[in-house]
Amino acid sequence: MRILVTGGVGVNGAVVTRKLLARGIVPVVVDRRADFSLVQDIKGKFDFAELDITDFDAVNSLLAEKQIDRIIHLAAFIDPNMDTEPFKSFQVNAAGTANLLEATKRAGIKRFVYASSRAVYGELPGNVGVPEYRLISEDYPKNPLLSYDATKLAAENLGQVYRTVFGLEFAALRFSAIYGPGKQARHGKMSLRSRLVEDPFCGKEVHLQKGGDQVDDLIYVDDAAEGMVGAVMAEKLPHAAYNIASGVGCTLRQFADAVRAAIPGTVIEIGPGLNPLGFSVNRAGIFDIQRAGIDFGFKPKFDLASGVKDYVDALRRLEQ
Predict the structure, then answer these.
(1) Which of 76, 128, 207, 213 is deepest in the core (most CB within 10 A)?
(2) Is the dihedral of CA 145, 147, 151, 154 positive or negative?
(3) Contact 229, 20 (CB under 8 A)
């Protein structure tokens, strides 16, 4: 089976690439730059193409040439300033996905798994978010407010059109907050949990003025990748959207406690309150993951303690 992974050397894509190789599948990995810092140990074991998904001719040619069977689409514009760059966000996240969908149709590819986000739900008010945190299902109303949110939902909606009109087995996976190695370097300010792990790992103290009471649904990158692989390998995908999350909530203080357990001597101080980074939209919530469990057996393997421990172990391996 030939599987294309866009963004396959990125934070999440690198783990997807590893999991496919472990299953005996040599993926075709696409990224706009040949940065192999997260995959040094497996470099050369997968087929790599440096390509920008906003270039339709290049995308169309690659899919025709490589005889791809299924696609995992992770490539996206993720940047601390992305919500002040709506045009670039649309070009990459929406138009880039449109390029892949059309090239997929022309190449006769039947399965397309898209990495979406909980951002499509927008802010989660009332008893859905703070303070009661009712589980959010895939049918919860979508209310994107920022550039990233809107472009992710636009890509989802277009994928649904290709599913309905052309019979493409399209499914969008809506991830909760992912934590794992590489996010601090690649995603900057947006990677708060990575800062809470990677700064103490380097011997630095962490001091946050607020946010210790913020409850959120966190998923370790290994579980997120397992969701992607499970969806692309499933016998069938009855639904066009799935939540991929832990299904439980934890506070930022609880996350800090897990870091202290994994890295002795850690100094982390967090003040009370919510929304530690002060984002204009607070997307924190807890997500219902039953649908993914029923349709392709998704079940997170890592709880908070084991996820943080594996994160620290991975940082040690990357240092070698």
Answers:
(1) 76
(2) positive
(3) yes
